[in-house]
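Saturday, quiet lab. Running sequence design on the structure tokens for the scaffold JK sent over.
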């Protein structure tokens, strides 16, 4: 395992600035660099510019929703391999969640989530990605 001096970069695509701040607070304490993007279009632009280690993606956003962001990321070879964790309200319709499984999203976190759950899931997805890379 190589020592990675660079902090891991996470882009958080979310239409609520408070949620971005909360996620930044939680993950920056764990050594992550968190870049917030408000809304889907800004999210796509930010992800393409930053090529982060991980994307945290809210589904319910005005204009360009998380689902469209996800499909565009996966359709673009430059961003197709970036792991995506979808952050979604518990009350959301189940067909979206089923769609996530079909679409091979890396994980999803229901809101409201605990700090530990967020950290654990981010760590788990990145660990899986590292293992896949070292196996390749």
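Result came back. Writing it out in full:
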């Amino acid at each position: 395992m190589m020592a990675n001096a660079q902090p891991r970069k996470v882009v958080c695509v979310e239409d609520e600035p408070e949620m971005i701040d909360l996620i930044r607070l939680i993950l920056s304490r764990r050594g992550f660099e968190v870049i917030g993007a408000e809304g889907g279009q800004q999210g796509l632009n930010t992800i393409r510019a930053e090529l982060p280690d991980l994307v945290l993606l809210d589904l319910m956003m005005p204009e360009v929703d998380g689902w469209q962001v996800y499909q565009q990321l996966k359709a673009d070879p430059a961003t197709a391999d970036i792991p995506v964790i979808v952050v979604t309200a518990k009350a959301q319709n189940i067909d979206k969640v089923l769609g996530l499984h079909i679409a091979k999203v890396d994980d999803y976190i229901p809101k409201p989530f605990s700090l530990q759950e967020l950290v654990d899931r981010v760590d788990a997805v990145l660990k899986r990605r590292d293992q896949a890379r070292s196996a390749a």
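Notes for JK: The chain has a mean pLDDT of 88. The first helix runs from residue 17 to 28. Ask whether to fix the surface positions before the next round.
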